[in-house]
Amino acid sequence: MADVSIRDLRNHGGEVVARAQRGERLTITHAGKPVAQLVALRRPPVPLDELMQRRARLPEVDPSKLRRDIDAVIDASV
Known about the structure:
The protein has a domain at 2-38: YefM-like fold (3-Layer(aba) Sandwich), CATH 3.40.1620. It is 46% helix and 19% strand. The protein has 4 helices and 3 strands. The model has no long low-confidence stretch (mean pLDDT 94).
């Protein structure tokens, strides 16, 4: 967890919030002492019907072709 001074929060609030949005947990300090934590809120879950619509739009995958493609780029000796 990183510390951010109240001054940095005031002067660079957008950058600090962006860090939290990317998943970083931040401790806000005042006079060098921790006073608060800044964390991103959880995203609301995607409804099941939306997930089903997204799934329906995905292209079909041929497992055999996928395996051949993977084998072509990965060194099996490693």
